[in-house]
């Protein structure tokens, strides 16, 4: 399961960020595929990106003059959320892959969660409301509406967008200012933290995780636990990267459908399945 998931993550990342000419020339692909979105974080400004970020598209729609309900973006999230839930986070997000690989580095004693996890886990909902929705929809102090999450926080955009562009374009390097160095510092902090703590950005700051987490209880793809067969050995909880109990697995908005619980269950009472209709 671990090898399969890593392979899917790598293939999806390469396919959706495979515009090599953009990396070499420091230019952004602007072809027709950019009108399509991918379900995970995939910065529009990444020179290798061949499609757009769904979260960036949501902010762009909210940035329009006046207020209009972004039905297209909401429909996109409803489609992928109702089909997959946070399976998207576990299998299809390039920045999730980066954090996974860093966590495998054999340094430090690994932690699944940060202290005060029960409070900090709501940070991603705060980011969703304050930066994605409010920051993109309203005016404050005379400043124009901005895609606040992309501009002030998104580490995926810094890693896959800003750094490659600056590396290949000398003119852009001369324009890098305080905002870039703030985001670079945040990126470095999150990358270093990922070596010790499992997916800190996904657990505590990612608004996409907040959105897809809402769909976990009723998405088509589920991790099913057969309670009547369970011997309560807790092997699944020990294997779970975010320390979920058997009752929480899949139903919790924190479950990313990584499949580690199903892989280690001695009774095979945890497994992937499609949600059964009533």
What's the short story on this structure?
It contains 16 helices and 4 strands. The protein has 278 residues and is mainly α. It folds into 2 domains: 2-213, no CATH class; 222-272, 2-Layer Sandwich (Alpha-Beta Plaits).
Descriptive account of the structure:
There is one protein chain. It contains 16 helices and four strands. It is globular and about 60 Å long. By secondary structure, the protein is mainly alpha-helical. It has helices at 2-16, 20-25, 54-62, 71-84, 87-91, 94-103, 117-120, 123-137, 148-152, 155-168, 170-173, 178-196, 200-204, 207-213, 235-239, 260-264, and strands at residues 37-38, 52-53, 221-225, 270-274. It folds into two domains: 2-213, no CATH class; 222-272, Alpha-Beta Plaits (2-Layer Sandwich). The protein starts with a helix and ends with a strand. The protein has a two-stranded parallel sheet with strand order 1-2. A two-stranded antiparallel sheet has the order 3-4.
